[in-house]
Every structure is written in C-alpha cells, then in structure tokens.
Specification:
Elements (H helix, E strand, L loop, with lengths): L2 H10 L2 H6 L8 E3 L2 H5 L7 H13 L22 H31 L3 H13 L2 H12 L6 H7 L2 E3 L2 H28 L12 H21 L8 H20 L3 H6 L4 H16 L5 E3 L4 H23 L1 H23 L3 E3 L13
Parallel strand pairs: 1-2
Antiparallel strand pairs: 3-4
Length: 357
C-alpha cells in the first residue's frame, strides 16, 4: 500500500484514537492492589494449578499464529464502506481487549512478589502478546494499526480490587472463547462467508482465551468466600454488565455480522448460553438470558444506546438534555435486568473444563 493510500486510511480510521476511547462499551485497562493479590491462596487447588501452569509454559499454540499467503490477497477496498467501518471497529476492539490483558499481566509481574502470582503473570505474559500483534498486523495490511506503545501511556487505567479483576477477567476470557468459537463453527459450515483469512485462526485464539479463564476459575474456587454472601451480588452485576455490553456493541455492527451469515441477536444469545454453561464451573448461578423479559430488557438497552449516540451527534443543549434522560432510562433498564430472577445450581466438584463447544 503506497503512502498516499495509507495517509487516506489514517484520516478515515483513527484506530489509536478509537482504542484510547473511554466509554461504557470500550475495553478498559486495569490496575489493582498487588499486595492483596499476593495474599491469594491457591493451596486448595494446588494440583490443578500446577498442571495449568505447565500448560501455560508448554504454550500449545506456539507457532500457530503465522500469516499465510492468503493475507496478501485481501482487497480492503472491495468491502462496502459499512463493512469496512465495522470490521475495523471489531479488530480495534479485539486488539485493545487482548492488549489490556498483556498490560494487566505485566503490571501484576512488576507489582507482585509471591511465587504464585509471579508464576501466573509470567506464563500469561509469555502466551498472551502474540494475539494482539497478530490482529494488529491485519490492520496494518489495511494501512492502519493501533499504536500499542502509545496506548499504554494514553489510555486511562481503572482501579479494581483483586476480586473484581477476577470476575471481570474470568468473564472476559470465557465469553471471548464463546464468541470466537461460535464464529469459527459458523465459518466451518459456511467457508464462503469467511470474509478474511484471520478467521481461520479463531480456534487457536479462543482456546488461549479459555485456558486463561481457567486460571481465574481456580483462583476463585480456591477462595470460596469470593463466591458467597454479598459477593453473589457483585457476580450478578459483572455477568449482566458483560452480557449487556456485548449485546449493545454487537448490534452496532449489523453489516459485519451479516457478512459472516450471523444474526446479532441469535449469535449473542448462543454466546450467552455457552458462557453460562462454562461459568457453572465456578459461579453458583447463571442469568436466565433466554427469558422473554430478559431479552426485552436487552433490546430496550440497545435502543437507548442508539438514542444516546444520536443525541451525542445532535450536540447542543437539546442533545445534552436528551442524553441525560436516556442515560437515566438506561440505568433503570439495567436495574430491572439486574433484579430478574437467576438460575441457581450446585458448582461441580472438579473445577477444570475442556474447550469442547
């Protein structure tokens, strides 16, 4: 791609600017209390923990993320403008989300002192950076990319206590697996809808996500107070926040999902089902995402999010007042979804799962 085209692409898609945005729907960078993290005990699951650390060190996906000649044949200009925009948005969001894990694990390595926390962060750091680089190379093919070095300095960091880190990252990794394996299975059946060769690597990508989530499952099961009492309320909040964010964000990419042969609503509900089945390994309940009232609440949130975007584009006093009213409506809708009955169950005796979906 020549310099003139690259400059035009940079003007149309400020990918680093997109990645640094700090909104409810954007991926975030986190920092935590590292002294408290050092006090986390894994002895109740020591055997499973040591086996998982060996898996990280072996790095089953080493060498998988290698570009093929197919990447050189992609014609970005052949995509419709709508698909271009939504594909870039998907890739930038994916890079930012994956890189946030790298940042967190690096922060953990520098801030923690115990062998358990250091071993864990070191092995994650060894396996996790490959994926954001692989995705970013795809953006570079389009003449754009996320400046990851700048991102570490420019993006705001949010403080989360260790237990919130556990809930958020566990769900991020497991729902990431469910998202990517669902897309991969769809394109296995319909290879003609594989709009880019990067989707051939989604199986390896999502298996990494699954394995990282296993570590957080073990940490929580080793410290059962994180899963009982008032902490059940926090688990419920994080489950709903992750599901609602995904639902709203995916419905903002209709052309992307249509190109893959996916209906955003059915795709999201399937991802919720898979994530709920996986999360039974550690959480004592799941959200009833197939209930009509729950689905109606998600749709209401989606419409409100569209209204907020329109009000932001409108600007001025009228747009600002409209945004305030819609933000209040979003909060009330989220509260109604939060109070929707959950489905309790007994957690299994064995914590570890295999990525079999």
């Amino acid at each position: 791609m020549n310099a003139a085209i690259a400059d035009a692409m940079d003007a149309r898609y400020d990918t680093t600017g997109m990645a640094t945005q700090d909104t409810v729907l954007s991926p975030h960078f986190y920092t935590t209390d590292y002294q408290a993290l050092d006090r986390i005990d894994v002895e109740p699951v020591r055997a499973d923990w040591d086996r998982l650390m060996e898996e990280f060190q072996a790095d089953a996906n080493r060498g998988h993320f290698r570009r093929s000649a197919e990447f050189d044949t992609v014609d970005f200009d052949a995509y419709s403008p709508e698909l271009q925009r939504e594909l870039v948005d998907f890739l930038v969001s994916s890079v930012t989300s994956e890189f946030s894990g790298c940042v967190l694990y690096a922060e953990t390595k520098s801030g923690c002192r115990t062998p358990t926390s250091n071993d864990c962060s070191a092995t994650w750091r060894a396996t996790n950076p490959v994926t954001p680089g692989f995705i970013n190379d795809t953006l570079k093919d389009f003449g754009i990319a996320v400046n990851l070095g700048f991102l570490t300095k420019a993006k705001k960091y949010k403080y989360f206590s260790p237990k919130f880190i556990f809930y958020a990252v566990y769900l991020s990794e497991k729902i990431g697996y469910a998202r990517y394996i669902t897309i991969y299975r769809q394109l296995e059946k319909h290879p003609e809808m594989r709009i880019h060769p990067i989707f051939k690597w989604f199986k390896e990508w999502c298996n990494d996500e699954f394995r990282h989530g296993e570590a957080f499952a073990l940490l929580m099961r080793a410290n059962p107070h994180l899963l009982t009492g008032a902490n059940r309320l926090w688990i419920r909040f994080f489950l709903l926040a992750v599901y609602a964010t995904m639902y709203v964000r995916d419905h903002s990419r209709p052309h992307f999902h249509a190109a893959l042969g996916l209906d955003p609503t059915e795709y999201d509900l399937q991802v919720f089902r898979v994530t709920s089945e996986i999360s039974k390994q550690v959480f004592p309940f799941t959200l009833d995402t197939d209930a009509p009232a729950f689905r109606a609440g998600l749709d209401r949130l989606r419409r409100i999010a569209d209204g907020i975007a329109a009000a932001r584009a409108q600007g001025g006093i009228g747009g600002g007042l409209r945004r305030i009213g819609l933000t209040v409506a979003a909060g009330l809708t989220f509260a109604q979804l939060y109070l929707h009955p959950v489905q309790d169950h007994q957690v299994p005796e064995s914590v570890r799962l295999a990525p079999t979906w």
